[in-house]
Design goal:
The chain is of the alpha+beta class. The chain folds into two domains: about 90 residues, no CATH class; about 50 residues, no CATH class. The chain is built from six helices and six strands; from the N terminus they run E-E-E-E-H-E-E-H-H-H-H-H. The longest helix is centred in the last third of the chain and has 19 residues.
């Protein structure tokens, strides 16, 4: 069974995660649909929140020039019709991309920042050491989520910086 994640805008974290055997929160297949545009499972409510937050423009990375460029999103009425079409169709299971899994994992980690820091303090670290440990763990998670090619570029850049 694929990973199933429902995004909760109120708390800015995933609120339902379903792994193969592990069920954290059970969402009815009648209530959720996979929306390819965002790469996540959504409810009607969260889909409408996505539409509201999308606005009419944004920026996307242009790989050819390695810069962010202006991009427009479809009209909110078009997006609403797209969501209606999703929910009028039978439920279909989809796999969440590794990129979206990594983003959601990082968001979940960041949502537990205080808990992580307090645990480190309870282990005997000072507040600053605990904060530094959190930053180091976050940096490791971010680095681990990068594609191998990007990791290699980061390491090369770090080596160049150290040499200078």
């Amino acid at each position: 069974m694929p990973l199933k994640i429902i995004y909760d805008f109120k708390n800015s974290v995933p609120r339902s995660i379903k792994y193969e055997e592990e069920l954290i929160v059970n969402m009815s297949t009648e209530e959720t649909r996979y929306w390819p545009r965002v790469g996540l499972y959504v409810t009607r409510k969260t889909a409408n929140e996505f539409i509201t937050r999308m606005g009419n423009s944004g920026k996307v990375l242009d790989d050819d020039i390695e810069e962010f460029v202006e991009s427009t999103t479809p009209d909110p009425l078009y997006l609403t019709a797209e969501v209606e079409e999703l929910f009028n169709a039978p439920y279909e299971s989809h796999e969440i991309s590794n990129e979206n899994k990594a983003i959601l994992d990082l968001m979940q980690f960041e949502s537990k920042k205080k808990e992580y820091i307090m645990t480190k303090k309870a282990e005997g670290l000072t507040l600053q050491e605990a904060k530094d440990a959190y930053k180091e763990a976050l940096d490791e998670k971010v680095f681990g989520a990068l594609p191998e090619e990007t990791q290699q570029r980061v390491l090369e850049q770090q080596n160049q910086d150290e040499e200078e």
